[in-house]
């Protein structure tokens, strides 16, 4: 009996030493490995350096010389390898005067937006189609709940800048205008499912680069 108890405690201490040795502090993304819903596979911990925990992709202002006069830089996994598996990520938003981030959703995370410079008008549309609008000044913050339609635009004169934080290492971004007018959803279906005229759908597909114009198909 004594022997059995001894063996039992030996096994127990062995198991606990193995489990404490395998406690995983982090999982730096290895984009060459397989990806799962919980994230990317882990880089060999022996090869991890301080650089893997840092990201310089938000350091510079983005180029806002574009149609929406806005630039968004994202620090999601695997570009920001260190956030993989940690349930956090970041982004930077630069808005020239008149700049807009079109209506979009993040299916994977809520977002906190922190205004660093200028004035930003932000809006949320709930699933009950209630609209929440807020004008934010430097230092002010707004939260966009996960999965809800939201947008941001420059609400002042001069440039605006904000940082965003997300509750996922890969929150996903889907812009509604792009889903409708930059995709190859046939124009007649965009019209029928959104109660829009053919002229307007044609114009927006032209602006945003969507394909599948009926005029291109041969009858
Ligand atoms: C910003 O983008 C525009 C349009 O693509 C381009 O012409 C311009 O050279 C870019 N500016 C910089 C500083 O990269």
UniProtKB/TrEMBL annotation:
Keywords assigned by UniProt, alphabetized: Apoplast, Disulfide bond, Glycoprotein, Manganese, Metal-binding, Secreted, Signal
Tagged with keyword Glycoprotein: yes
Residues noted as binding oxalate in the record, renumbered to the chain: 106, 111
Domain Cupin type-1: from-to ranges: 56-202
Cysteines paired by S-S bonds: 27-42
Localization, UniProt: Secreted, Extracellular space, Apoplast
Signal peptide: 1-20
An example molecular function term from Gene Ontology annotations: manganese ion binding
Residues that bind Mn(2+): 104, 106, 111, 150
Principal location class: secreted
Keyword Manganese included in the entry's annotation: yes
Family matches, as InterPro entries: Cupin_1 (IPR006045), Germin (IPR001929), RmlC-like_jellyroll (IPR014710), RmlC_Cupin_sf (IPR011051)
GO CC annotation terms, alphabetical: apoplast; extracellular matrix
Family: Belongs to the germin family.
Protein name, per record: Germin-like protein
């Amino acid at each position: 009996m004594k022997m059995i108890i001894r063996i039992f405690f030996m096994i127990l201490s062995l198991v606990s030493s193995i489990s404490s040795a395998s406690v995983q502090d982090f999982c730096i993304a290895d984009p060459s490995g397989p990806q799962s819903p919980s994230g990317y596979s882990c880089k060999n911990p022996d090869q991890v350096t301080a650089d893997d925990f840092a990201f310089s992709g938000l350091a510079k202002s983005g180029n806002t010389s574009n149609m929406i006069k806005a630039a968004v830089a994202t620090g999601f996994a695997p570009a920001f390898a260190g956030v993989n598996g940690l349930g956090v990520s970041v982004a930077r938003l630069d808005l020239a005067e008149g700049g807009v981030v079109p209506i979009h959703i993040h299916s994977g995370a809520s977002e906190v937006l922190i205004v660093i410079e200028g004035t930003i008008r932000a809006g949320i549309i709930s699933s009950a189609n209630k609209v929440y609008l807020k004008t934010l000044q430097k230092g002010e913050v707004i939260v966009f709940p996960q999965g809800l339609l939201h947008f941001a635009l420059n609400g002042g004169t001069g440039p605006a800048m904000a940082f965003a934080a997300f509750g996922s290492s890969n929150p996903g971004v889907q812009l509604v205008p792009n889903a409708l007018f930059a995709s190859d959803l046939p124009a007649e279906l965009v019209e029928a499912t959104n109660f829009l005229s053919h002229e307007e759908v044609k114009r927006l597909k032209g602006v945003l680069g969507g394909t599948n114009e009926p005029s291109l198909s041969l009858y």
